[in-house]
Amino acid sequence: MKYAFLFILIASLAATSCNNTDKKPKDVSAIMRDTAQFTTIKWKDTALDFGARKMGDIVNLTFVCTNTGNKPLYLYEVHPSCGCTLVDYSKAPIAPGQTGKIDAQFDTKKSHSAQVHKTIFVHTNTDDPARYLSFSGTVISDSANAVKK
């Protein structure tokens, strides 16, 4: 009997912890396939350069987009190209005329010293649903700094 209670408790905790609290509709994938729900998007920049940064620095970048269409815009999937970059993005639908953003945080200590070029894959409900945003710069190691002095 106590095992049944324990099972029910664990199952109910698992069910409530899996509730999606995002403001996305339940079936965004259906919107992504329905061309009548497509909109248009304009990016302020699709490529950013962070310049030269020391190994160990954290680089914060923001990509801004505007919904230039007449349907809500969904940033459906946003994935960085590697584990050295974390992303956070507008998860709520972006109304026509409004802006959304993707914040990227690049950890230079998880990279190598040299010129770097990283990408972020973005999937949206537009005619061109797959978009690659990119950023680049130079990571300078401490040993390179010591040689220059």
List the helices and strands and how they pair.
Layout: H1 2-17, H2 28-33, E1 41-43, E2 47-54, E3 58-67, E4 75-80, E5 85-89, E6 99-107, E7 114-124, E8 130-140, H3 142-148
Parallel strand pairs: 2-8
Antiparallel strand pairs: 1-3, 3-6, 4-7, 5-6, 7-8
Describe the model.
- There is one protein chain.
- By secondary structure, this protein is an alpha+beta fold.
- The protein has a single domain (2-148), classed as Immunoglobulins (Immunoglobulin-like), CATH 2.60.40.
- It is 19% helix and 42% strand.
- The chain has helices at residues 2-17, 28-33, 142-148, and strands at residues 41-43, 47-54, 58-67, 75-80, 85-89, 99-107, 114-124, 130-140.
- It has a four-stranded antiparallel sheet with strand order 1-3-6-5, with no helix packed on it.
- The protein is elongated and about 55 Å long.
- The termini are far apart.
- The model is unreliable at 3-9, 11-24 and 145-149 (pLDDT under 50).
Q: Biggest sheet: strands, sense, closure?
A: 4 strands, antiparallel
Question: Whole-number average pLDDT?
Answer: 81
Name the shape in a single word.
elongated
Order of helices and strands: HHEEEEEEEEH
- Under CATH, the topology can be stated as Immunoglobulin-like
Order of strands across the main sheet: 1-3-6-5
